[in-house]
């Protein structure tokens, strides 16, 4: 006989949140049938759905990048119409941020945070399902906007007015894009509330905050960034929407509006957003490096403080995106200083990671390779970031390919490498099967070389003055752009091989122990204590943590 239990938390509604009665083995079964899976409120099922959405979107957003790189592979090509080129640039950025990186990190967070803290689910399982499902209409709005008259948003993923106002971007695609951003923002905000309540209230007895795994800390700080930043973005794009639809003048100079105000509001979210895209990645990297060095993480307390510092300073630096927008020299000095300051906590993390692997018994698994790749590429992205923090330098390279190279080192070399590391590390736990390490090694090297071949040369062409978001360019930039476009093919090959590797692994029977990497003797962790894949509700009896 099987009893369907809506949510174990509901049964305990009136009891203090931190008190868990011992329960006998819950007679629950894994969901079967597609409707049960889709309707599930199990954090693990929802986590998987986030990951699947992110993987699918990665191929869509990645194919946009391919089209862009094809157009830019030689100087005066006309493969794409200029209008379509602008739409693809805009939608590539939007998709990669809102539908790849953020959902993928949310996927790992949903799957792992409750397990890591010894809980049976997120605090609000139905809200959690809502956070995922609201992304689907958001994606539909964005992707179908290519089909409307005039096409998708072509004003850049930053959608700066006046360019994004009706006069210059009349297409309904911009309105659809704004509504899509609203829904994606709603998803982030409700998700963040869920993470905060879960982490603060649902830790198993004995798991105090300073015993919590770093991935959970990273998610807690991340959720705070989302909660403070995202509503500001939603407000800003709503004001663009009313300027477009109802003739308000928030950002119209003619109506005493101020386009620079938009930039302040936009970057108040979007600078922290770059940390939203890397903080959970930091968490993943900490776990992978420690596990495959067979050590404890070095400087746990310092890592927690560094995450907190990044979470605060991250909100104080947005103006570094506006050095050329006409803000005063004093204010530029402030933003320049604060931006360099954030290198300090970041440095604390880098040195702690290095100290973690120092003297460790290192196993070069695929996950470990991606984690080491993460460190090296993220450091390059960080250093070019410190360059950009200098006003005179930024004024020279603003809106050139140097900036494009910088943020791809952070996003592709940082966030995406961390996602690969996490995938290799946790796939066995989620599926009960190991991904092929042989293929994994090939994928790593293809991606690592592909990434560097694509983006390293773009620093140079940027320093020489090649502007970003342009459709054709001067012939002297051609060789470097050709090289960069070749690099894309390697990354594409890595992506296809990764997809193949997943299907190949899922075809095999389950063969994976609770602790496939043999790390539980070094680092006690609830994740490696429970079955692979974990049973519904994770723990028949809420564990005590010591
Ligand atoms: C597959 C390899 C990739 C290639 C070849 C590629 C290429 C490009 C190009 C050519 C641009 C236009 C630059 C510009 O705006 O001036 C761009 C923009 C952008 N890319 Fe990528 N990209 C790739 C992967 C990624 C990934 C994985 C992410 C996210 C993690 C990402 C995030 C962005 C963002 C946010 C923009 C900014 C768009 C804008 O400023 O309007 N890209 N990319
Ligand atoms: Cu920034």
Structural description of this entry:
The protein is built from 18 helices and no strands. The model is unreliable at 1-21 (pLDDT under 50). The longest helix is centred in the N-terminal third of the chain and has 35 residues, at 82-116. The protein has helices spanning 8-11, 34-38, 43-71, 82-116, 125-133, 135-144, 172-201, 214-246, 259-276, 279-292, 300-313, 329-341, 343-357, 366-389, 391-397, 401-431, 437-463, 478-507. Helix content is 64%, strand content 0%. It is mainly α and 546 residues long. The structure holds protoporphyrin IX containing FE and copper (II) ion. Protoporphyrin IX containing FE binds at residues 62, 65, 68-69, 89-90, 92-93, 96-97, 101, 156-157, 404, 408, 411-412, 415-416, 454, 468-469, 488, 491.
Task: Kindly summarize this structure in a few lines.
This protein has helices at residues 8-11, 34-38, 43-71, 82-116, 125-133, 135-144, 172-201, 214-246, 259-276, 279-292, 300-313, 329-341, 343-357, 366-389, 391-397, 401-431, 437-463, 478-507.
SSE layout:
Elements: H1 8-11, H2 34-38, H3 43-71, H4 82-116, H5 125-133, H6 135-144, H7 172-201, H8 214-246, H9 259-276, H10 279-292, H11 300-313, H12 329-341, H13 343-357, H14 366-389, H15 391-397, H16 401-431, H17 437-463, H18 478-507
Helix pairs in contact: 3-4, 3-5, 3-18, 4-7, 4-16, 5-7, 6-7, 7-8, 8-9, 8-10, 8-11, 10-13, 10-14, 10-16, 11-13, 14-16, 14-17, 16-17, 17-18
Residues 62, 65, 68-69, 89-90, 92-93, 96-97, 101, 156-157, 404, 408, 411-412, 415-416, 454, 468-469, 488, 491 line the site of protoporphyrin IX containing FE (HEM).
């Amino acid at each position: 006989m099987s009893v369907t239990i809506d949510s174990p938390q509901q049964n305990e509604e009136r009891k203090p949140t931190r008190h868990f009665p011992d329960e006998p083995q819950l007679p629950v079964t894994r969901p079967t049938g597609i409707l049960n899976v889709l309707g599930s409120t199990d954090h693990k099922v929802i986590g998987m759905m986030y990951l699947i959405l992110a993987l699918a979107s990665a191929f869509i957003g990645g194919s946009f990048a391919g089209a862009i790189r094809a157009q830019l592979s030689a100087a005066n090509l006309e493969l794409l119409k200029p209008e379509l080129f602008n739409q693809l640039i805009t939608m590539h950025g939007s998709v990669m941020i809102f539908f790849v990186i953020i959902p993928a990190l949310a996927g790992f967070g949903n799957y792992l945070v409750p397990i890591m803290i010894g809980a049976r689910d997120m605090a609000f399982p139905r809200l959690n399902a809502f956070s995922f499902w609201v992304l689907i209409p958001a994606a539909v709005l964005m992707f179908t906007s290519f089909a409307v008259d005039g096409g998708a948003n072509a004003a850049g993923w930053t959608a700066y007015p006046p360019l994004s106002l009706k006069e210059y971007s009349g297409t309904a695609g911009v309105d659809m894009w704004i509504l899509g951003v609203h829904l994606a923002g709603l998803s982030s905000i409700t998700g963040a509330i869920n993470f905060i309540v879960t982490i603060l209230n649902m830790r198993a007895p004995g798991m105090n905050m300073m015993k919590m795994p770093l991935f959970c800390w990273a998610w807690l700080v991340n959720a705070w960034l989302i909660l403070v930043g995202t509503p500001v973005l939603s407000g800003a794009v709503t004001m663009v929407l009313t300027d477009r639809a109802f003739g308000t003048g928030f950002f119209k100079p003619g109506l005493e509006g101020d386009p620079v105000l938009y930039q302040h509001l936009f970057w108040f979210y979007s600078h922290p957003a770059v940390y939203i895209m890397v903080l959970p990645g930091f968490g993943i990297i900490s776990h992978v490096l420690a596990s495959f060095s067979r050590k404890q993480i070095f400087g746990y307390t310092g890592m927690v403080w560094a995450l907190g510092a990044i979470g605060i300073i991250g909100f104080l630096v947005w103006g570094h995106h506006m050095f050329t927008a006409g803000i005063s020299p004093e204010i530029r000095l402030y933003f320049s200083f604060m931006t360099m300051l954030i290198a300090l906590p970041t440095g604390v993390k880098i040195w702690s990671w290095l100290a973690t692997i120092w003297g460790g018994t290192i196993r070069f698994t695929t996950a470990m390779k991606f984690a080491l790749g993460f460190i090296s590429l993220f450091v390059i992205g960080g250093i070019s970031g410190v360059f950009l923090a200098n006003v005179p330098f930024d004024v020279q390279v603003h809106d050139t390919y140097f900036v494009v190279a910088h943020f791809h080192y952070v996003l592709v070399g940082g966030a995406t490498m961390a996602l690969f590391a996490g995938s290799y590390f946790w796939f066995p736990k989620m599926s009960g099967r190991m991904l092929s390490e042989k293929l994994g090694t090939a994928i790593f090297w293809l991606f690592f070389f592909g990434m560097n071949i694509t983006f390293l040369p773009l620093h140079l062409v940027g320093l020489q003055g090649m502007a970003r978001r342009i459709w054709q360019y001067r012939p002297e930039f051609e060789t470097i752009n050709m090289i960069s476009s070749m690099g894309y093919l390697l990354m594409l090959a890595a992506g296809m091989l990764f997809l193949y590797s997943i299907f190949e692994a899922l075809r095999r029977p389950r063969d994976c122990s609770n602790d496939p990497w043999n790390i539980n003797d070094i680092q006690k962790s609830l994740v490696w204590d429970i079955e692979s894949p974990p049973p519904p509700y994770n723990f028949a009896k809420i564990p005590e943590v010591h």
